[in-house]
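TICKET: design request
STATUS: open
ATTACHED STRUCTURE:
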């Protein structure tokens, strides 16, 4: 069973930075896509950034230029460097993984990010 464990969330002032990490364990197959989603109270879950095993990345317009996604395939770990944080970035950030070989999605439990104004 694949498990995703996030870390790095917390409380930060507007303009500050945080780095999220997500470690995937239990997979013997390549994790093709890893991503970060976020969900604020009363809002839909939204894609923040994604990255393929080859390193191709994509970002939501709202975070372009401020957030950077990266991954270490050897460690099955994905990172999200978040700079110039805004109060509207406040949400639970969830790690996502897709394994093509199994055609299955996996989700982490989430880590809270709170940005104060």
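STATUS: resolved
RESOLUTION: sequence designed for all positions
ATTACHED SEQUENCE:
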């Amino acid at each position: 069973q694949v498990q995703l464990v996030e870390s790095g969330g917390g409380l930060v002032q507007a303009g500050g930075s945080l780095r999220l990490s997500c470690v995937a364990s239990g997979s013997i197959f390549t994790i093709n896509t890893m991503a970060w989603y976020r969900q604020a109270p009363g809002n839909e879950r939204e894609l923040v950034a994604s990255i393929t095993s080859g390193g191709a990345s994509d970002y939501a317009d709202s975070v372009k230029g401020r957030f950077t996604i990266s991954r270490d395939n050897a460690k099955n770990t994905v990172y999200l460097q978040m700079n110039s944080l805004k109060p509207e970035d406040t949400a639970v950030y969830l790690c996502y993984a897709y394994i093509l070989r199994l055609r299955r999605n996996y989700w982490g439990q989430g880590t809270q990010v709170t940005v104060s104004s």
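CLOSING REMARK: The chain has a mean pLDDT of 96. The longest strand covers residues 91-99.
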